[in-house]
Amino acid sequence: MKELFARRSIRKYLDIPVTPEQIERLLRAGMAAPSAGDGREWSFLVVQSQEGKEKFMSAHDASGAVKTAPLLIMVCARFREEVYAPEGFWVQDCAAAIENMLIEATYLGLGSLWMAIYPRQHRIARIRTLFGIPEEVIPFGAVAIGVPARGKPPIDRYMADYVYLERYGQRLDGR
After folding, report:
1. Domain range holding 141?
2. Chain segment 48-83, per-residue pLDDT in tens
3. I want to staple 163 with a disulfide (CB 3.0 to 4.6 A). Which of 18, 54, 71, 172 is the partner?
């Protein structure tokens, strides 16, 4: 549980590669996420080359962290007729996969940063073109991963004012 509170958004990384074993663990963590109807509509695009990272940065206006990150993993939704994708559950599935990777990165001593692609249509279109992603696949989000250049202390963001009991607006603490 400590990884949940230690997970922080990291925007600068040391020039230390992420090992193949760590990459596999990150991907396994992503694929261990819950999936509506067991659809598992996700796919993962691993980018390690400088050229690939530069392509991503040219398509994503809030991707400065990729400049120093040794690894970028994009999570995409691939649609098959037999799953619940048209109902929109894919968004939750892909988000859960990313969150699992963020937590696993923290567990491995790595830093990470989630960068949204979906629903920004200009980002989706540009990333599809640059990375050869087919039309039936939607790039959802990307995670920059690496050894943090500096640590950040754990944070607890619990806000009791936004927790309700039985009825929205009725505070859990009785106030």
Report:
1. 2-162
2. 999 999 999 999 999 999 999 999 999 999 986 555
3. 172
Residue 171 forms part of a structural domain:
no
- The CATH number given to whatever domain includes residue 151 is 3.40.109.10
- Has residue 168 been placed in a domain? no
In a domain, 175, yes or no: no
Q: How many domains does the chain have?
A: 1
Kindly report, residue by residue over 155-173, the tens digit of the pLDDT: 999 999 999 999 999 998 8
Q: Specify the DSSP class assigned to residue 12.
A: -
DSSP the chain: -HHHHH--B---B-S-PPPHHHHHHHHHHHHTS--GGG---EEEEEE-SHHHHHHHHHH-TT-GGGGT-SEEEEEEEE--TTSSGGGTHHHHHHHHHHHHHHHHHHHTT-EEEEEE-TT-HHHHHHHHHHHT--TTEEEEEEEEEE-BSS---------GGG-BSSSTTSBTT--
